[in-house]
Design brief:
The chain has about 130 residues and is α+β, with helices and mostly antiparallel strands. The protein contains two helices and six strands. The strands form two sheets. It has a four-stranded mixed β-sheet, with helices on one face. It binds S-adenosylmethionine.
Length: about 130
C-alpha cells in the first residue's frame, strides 16, 4: 500500500482550490475517500455546502466519492483537546451532495456502540455514502 502512495498533499476543503495551485498536482481524481473530515471542518451549514462544491472540483466526471461522517455530533475529543463539529443529518447531507452535482448511489446509517468506555464523541451514529459525480 505505502509503495502505491505517490504523494501526500495538504488539503483545505474550505478553499475553492482545496489542493492549492502548486504545479505537479493531479487536477482531478477518479476516487475520493473522506472519513470524518467534512462536518469536522465546517462551522455552519453554508460552509458545509461550499465545502462540497470545493471537493467536487477535485473529482472527474463519473468519479466516485466514498463519504463517511458522524451524524448529530457537536464535539469530539483527541487527547486533551476538544474540537467542535457541525451537527449534520441525512436530509441535509443528501441535499448538499446533490446541490454539488453528486448522484447518491448508496447511503447507509450505522449505529456504533461503546467506545471502550472512553467518551470520544457525543454521537453514536455515522453515515456511509457512495456517490458519483455527474
Ligand atoms: C475527526 S478527524 C478525522 C481524521 C481521520 N480522517 C480519521 O478518520 O481518523 C477530523 C479531520 O478533519 C481535518 N480537517 C479539519 N479542517 C479541515 C479542512 N479545512 N480541510 C481538510 N481537512 C480538514 C483535520 O485535519 C482532521 O484530520
Amino acid at each position: 500500500m505505502r509503495q502505491k502512495i505517490k504523494a501526500i498533499i495538504p488539503c483545505d476543503i474550505l478553499q475553492t482550490e482545496p489542493l492549492g495551485t502548486k504545479p505537479n498536482c493531479p487536477l482531478k481524481f477518479d476516487l475520493i475517500v473522506s472519513h470524518a473530515c467534512v462536518a469536522e471542518a465546517c462551522r455552519n451549514q453554508e460552509e458545509y455546502q461550499s465545502a462540497w462544491y470545493n471537493i467536487a472540483t477535485l473529482l472527474k466526471c463519473n468519479g466516485i466519492l466514498v463519504y463517511i461522517d458522524v451524524l448529530g455530533e457537536t464535539k469530539y475529543i483527541v487527547g486533551e483537546a476538544t474540537f467542535a463539529t457541525l451537527p449534520i443529518e441525512v436530509p441535509f447531507i443528501s441535499k448538499s451532495l446533490r446541490n454539488a452535482g453528486f448522484e447518491i448511489l448508496k447511503s447507509e446509517e450505522v449505529r456504533y456502540g461503546s467506545q471502550d468506555g472512553k467518551i470520544l464523541s457525543d454521537a453514536d451514529r455515522f453515515l456511509c455514502i457512495v456517490a458519483r459525480k455527474k
